[in-house]
Design goal:
Blueprint lengths: L2 H36 L6 H14 L6 H23 L7
């Protein structure tokens, strides 16, 4: 494959990643709703530890476990923000 073929493959993978991240975000949104209704905390360190363990077990490289964890730490931060937004009191209409 030449460079354009590799770039096309990356573009295709990026589209798949966007779809999957949005699907994950929808799950986080629904979890935020359940947490709000159950008065559960947003931050659950045990759950995050499980996530990081799962990705390390699934990692076959070439990303190192450290690199993959760095990506996931940011992803989890964004998902936590989605839950915060879901749990925040709705703004009153003007």
């Amino acid at each position: 494959m030449d460079i354009e073929d590799w770039r096309q493959k990356i573009d295709d993978l990026d589209r798949q990643l966007v779809r999957l991240m949005n699907e994950r975000a929808q799950c986080a949104h629904e979890i935020g709703r359940l947490k709000r209704d159950s008065a559960m905390p947003i931050y659950e360190p045990d759950r995050e530890r499980i996530i990081f363990q799962n990705i390390a077990r699934a990692n076959a490289g070439p990303l190192s476990d450290v690199q993959l964890r760095q990506v996931y730490e940011r992803l989890v931060d964004v998902m936590r923000q989605i839950q915060r937004e879901e749990m925040a009191p709705e703004a009153e209409n003007d």
